[in-house]
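Appendix B. Raw example, untouched.
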Amino acid sequence: MMNNILIPLLMDVQNWTYILVGITFTIYIGIAIWSRASSTKEFYIAGGGVSPLANGMATAADWMSAASFISMAGIISFAGYDGAVYLMGWTGGYVLLALLLAPYLRKFGKFTVPDFIGDRYYSNSARIVAVVCALLVSFTYVAGQMRGVGIVFSRFLEVDINTGVFIGMLIVLFYAVLGGMKGITYTQVAQYCVLIFAFMVPAIFISIQMTGNPIPQLGFGGELNDGSGMYLLDKLDGLSTELGFSEYTTGNKSTIDVFAITLALMVGTAGLPHVIVRFFTVKKVKDARKSAGIALLLIVILYSTAPAVSVFARTNLIETLSDKPYNEVPQWFKKWETTGLITFTDKNNDGKIQYLADKDKNELIVDRDIMVLANPEIAKLPNWVIALVAAGGLAAALSTAAGLLLVISSSVSHDLIKKVINPKITEKGELIAARLSAVAAVCVAGYFGINPPGFVAAVVALAFGLAAASFFPAIILGIFYKRMNKEGAIAGMIVGIVAMLLYMMKYKLGWFDDVLPDKSEWWLGISPEGFGSIAMLINFIVSIVVMKFTKEPPIEVQAIVEDIRIPSSGGSPVNH
């Protein structure tokens, strides 16, 4: 009898992963079948009748992507204090979105961000520019999600990253194409439950293991329970400096770059089309406010835990591998080594792993994206916990990928085909076009997942820069400045997005090196991840200058702008 109980507990990580991932995928597919979309309204905005609680959970899952689940703690574990810009920028940006944009956009009552821009700026040209911007932002963002899916599959199901990306494509294609926003919304509710449980369980385990405190947010700042009387952060500072790294709790980034990255992430968040569209799915304006508040509370659980996870992972990694004989490394190291995401090169032929800040002497290369996923293995947690983290990483990546794919398909089918190319298309024809667009989007997303321009969070950070450079000024001015006209908005979006793209091409992809200064010489000391804030300012300036020299919007458009800013207890959208 006892043996029958112990057998499942002693299963290896791969079997546990098959079971947990299989169960969660079955749930996602079942929800998609149950909530399949039968109309364009259900496909685009889930019929507009989602409850604030469900929408809050779905928004949280949509928001907490592979970058939040997999990469953010990985960045902080390597960058230390400097990695806090991601916490500040993404959290602050969501507050900005919830307070400044969500209620007004919901009252405007449209399906998509390009739909809002097209109607607010009374121009199909503005709509087309917005569609192009939405596609650029979404494809850049979704590349990071598909890469995250590939990483999880490659390690835990022991397939190569490309095969993992293909599997993820098939799953997300099924429930995004079949269910549209309706299917995605209720799938994301389930995915939030999976991802937050998967993130918190190992964090609590390791916090107890290292400090005796079951609350990770308190544990990582507490004393070690080894009797030394030393604080965990002090120990990590000491380990870091011994290896030649700077102190973990000390930052190296310039103040201007920290400010620029934080601002770019904040305003980029407020301009992300896949998050904004979630506020169109509720019945009333006040429901948009409620769901925004609920989502923020749910997001804070993970975001306040990420710094603790990064400290636990970094400390355990150094203690487990630094100066250890290679032939004695744990089994998890060998498993990750087969994925190519952790590599050892014995430069001095002593058989030991030299993990050092000096690049010429360092023998260990660790991909930042494995830190959260490998953390339970490094800490020797039970196999089911390790597999649970894999299921959580997939839930985070797939939930955001689905939201992004819906933005892409709706931008093509609704904003381009329905509103510009063929206004007489039937609802059935539009629904078919939306689903075909989603299929094409998944294929392109898969390509970018196989060939991403950097580790997951860096790719995602660039998407925020693109959103900041293009959408944020157009949306803010569209809501709060009735004099803003189509000429100003179009010019601002084009100049802003082009400026951001050129900076990315130069300093992220290495283009133009033969005609422009050295790649390392950032303008004003601002990294590509932070340049979105500069491009946003350029957008604002161009928009306002062009507006000053062109005619003001029609009276009826100005009346709409006045109306959407007036609180409404009923919460009904504007009629126009």
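End of appendix B.
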